Amino acid sequence: MSSIALAPSSSSKLVHMSGRSSLQVPSITTSSLVPSNLAALADPPVRQIDAAAMDYFLIELVNTLRESSAVATARQKKVEKEMIEAGLIPPPAQVAPAVPKKETGRDSLTSLNSKSGKTVPVVDEEEDAVRVRLEAIGIHVGANFTERLCRDRPLFAETLDAIKFVCKDIWAAVWEKQVDNLRTNHRGIYVLQDNAFKPISRLSSWQGRAEAVKRARIYAAMPAGIIRGALARLGYHSTVVPEITILPQCTFQVKLPKGT
Fold it and tell me: What pairing do the DSSP bridges indicate for beta strands 189-194 and 250-255?
């Protein structure tokens, strides 16, 4: 966001036509045109808080949104059920049960996931609703941070400059460090890697490391929204996918549309 300088008015200096006397009018500065209350809103004073406050806030935020999303999902299903019973909407299509495959000697007694070596993720409606809400909050936060940090900067000429702004300025303002690694294929895909991502650095689970990684994924939804909000305020509409394979490392894949 570039600042606009007001050009001095041509009437700032009035000279008497007779040449005997002149009247000097004091120049009007930009700061005198802005009331003090509006200036305080544009540049609020810096307030210090405890470093652990954000960690506690994120924990309570996830728990609160999880309970709220469960209530909202139950309410939505109840309304849909009432509308189906009243004949206002058609009932959902029934999913045909999968035909069990005949086992052979080479088939495993477990599911097909063990053959491919990959597990198919199960979509949880309530967990997905929490993720959507967290990302929406992150978009709002990232946009506000970008407005504050880019107030006195010119527009970014290149897409890579905007990504570097996120990796340096946004990361330092929110998580007090910079991204450890930035990679790109020069086709609109950027990979941001943080080897010690602060929001998940203190997460653990008594059920083991795999369960801790699974639970940590929900805490990366709000940071992904912060990245999306920052880029959106700069004029880049992106898709951000967080990935956590080992704690406390977190990777964000940023995909921009072609031609940006």
Answer: antiparallel
Model confidence pLDDT, tens digit, residues 74-118: 888 888 888 888 888 888 777 655 555 454 433 333 333 434 444
Structure tokens at 22: 């002149």
CA-to-CA distance for 65 and 82, rounded, in angstroms?
26
pLDDT tens track for 37-86? 777 776 777 777 776 777 778 778 888 888 888 888 888 888 888 888 88
Which residues make Cβ contacts (< 8 Å) with residue 230, sequence separation at least 6?
142, 143, 145, 146, 165, 166, 170
CB 137 within 8 A of CB 81: no
